[in-house]
Structures are given as structure tokens and as C-alpha cells.
Design goal:
Elements (H helix, E strand, L loop, with lengths): L23 H14 L4 E6 L3 H13 L4 E3 L25 H4 L14 H18 L4 E5 L2 H11 L18 E7 L2 E8 L27
Parallel strand pairs: 1-2, 1-3
Antiparallel strand pairs: 4-5
Helix pairs in contact: 1-2, 4-5
């Protein structure tokens, strides 16, 4: 699961920074998904250590009477622009100081390598599979790591257009196992009606609302 909306009035790419919590709308998203998952056979709930992921996972764990676990491998991708504003139309690409970080979109040169994200996310999936073997687990993470591990499993290239990620706020990307093998991948958006339209996958950027905050 990707976490819900974050309170970020200054439009900062917050990345792995501490202190970024769910907004009121984000809490509504978390509650919505907790209701959606209440009938499921969930025996393990684990989240990234960042506040927004922990707060999203808490109502899900509570609904199933479970303690919330934390897995550092579910954390947001590292990014050199963390703590800055960097998004569509904000002029960041015109600043010469940023150019050295943008030379290789295939790695990518501005942050944690895609391959490293695949490795840690697959390890987190395997750990959750073992913790909930025969049942279901919910892992709360962040948009880029979720999209990258899904792309790997579905045998797509890892470099991509960020605007086309199918990983909306509070969405569920489901990996189904038979034994130790992933046999299918699913995707649902239980809180879609709560997501601002400009943040849905494939939406066109809106001036002042198109920043890539890191999620």
C-alpha cells in the first residue's frame, strides 16, 4: 500500500525527512483502506519507518488486532533533491547546479539506484510472505519503491516517466504467491474518490500543483 496524503504546505520534496505526517484527508484515506481490508485474512501489517507510512498502517493493524511492525527496507527512495522544491514548472531544471544530478535517468543519477530499490523491496516482500504464510500481509511503503518492484516483477524496464506510475495515494498493489513464487499482480484504489484529481495516475499537471514531493 502507498500511504495517504501528507500535510506539506510548502511543497517540499520531503523524501526520507522526518516530521511529515498525514493530512486530515490522508487520515481519511487510511481509514477507508482499513475498512476495505477489514474482511481480509490479514495476519501481518508492516510499514516503512517514516511517519506517513506508520500513520497509514496504524488503522489497518488496529482493525485486525495486530501489532504494527516496521521494516527499514520499505522506506522511500533516496533523492539528492530531498528538502528542496523540485517539480514540474518550478524552474528546477533550469538551475545549473542541478544538472550534474540529471545526467543518467536510467540509474537514476539523482537518487537511489533502481536496482537497489528492487533488492530491498523484494527482501521486504519475502519477509512479509514468511510472516503471513498461508494468510495475507499488508506492507505500507512509498510510490517509487512500490512502482519499481512492480515493474521488476512484471518484467518492465525500471526507468520510466514518473507521471505514468500507477500508484495513487492509498492504493493497493497486490502480489499473490503460490508457494514462494509470485504468480500475479493486482492493483486497486479503495480511496480513489478521496484523491485530488491532479494526483491520479496520468493526470495532467496543474500549475502550482504539479510538484513531485516524493511519497
Amino acid at each position: 500500500m502507498r500511504h495517504g496524503e501528507v500535510a506539506n504546505p510548502d511543497g517540499i520534496l520531503y523524501g526520507r525527512l522526518a516530521g511529515y505526517h498525514l493530512s486530515e484527508l490522508g487520515r481519511q484515506m487510511a481509514d477507508r483502506v482499513a475498512e476495505h481490508l477489514a474482511p481480509r485474512d490479514v495476519t501481518h501489517v508492516v510499514a516503512s519507518p517514516l511517519e506517513r507510512a506508520q500513520e497509514t498502517a496504524t488503522p489497518i493493524a488496529k482493525a485486525h488486532g495486530l501489532d504494527l511492525a516496521t521494516d527499514e527496507r520499505l522506506i522511500e527512495a533516496g533523492n539528492v533533491f530531498q528538502g528542496k522544491t523540485f517539480g514540474v514548472g518550478d524552474g528546477a531544471l533550469r538551475k545549473p547546479g542541478n544538472w550534474k544530478h540529471l545526467v543518467n535517468p536510467f540509474r537514476p543519477s539523482w537518487g537511489e539506484p533502481y536496482v537497489d530499490q528492487v533488492v530491498r523491496m523484494m527482501q521486504a516482500l519475502d519477509a512479509a510472505k514468511e510472516a503471513a504464510r498461508g494468510h495475507e500481509a499488508v506492507l505500507v511503503s512509498h510510490q517509487l519503491p512500490i512502482w519499481i518492484v512492480r515493474s521488476y516483477v512484471e518484467k518492465r524496464r525500471l526507468w520510466h516517466d514518473p507521471r505514468k506510475r500507477q500508484c495513487t495515494l492509498a492504493s493497493l498493489t497486490t502480489f499473490t504467491y503460490q508457494g514462494d513464487k509470485i504468480v500475479s499482480v493486482g492493483y486497486t484504489e479503495p480511496a480513489r474518490d478521496l484523491v485530488p484529481p491532479h494526483l491520479l495516475a496520468g493526470a495532467k499537471p496543474v500549475k502550482g500543483q504539479g510538484k513531485a514531493f516524493g511519497a
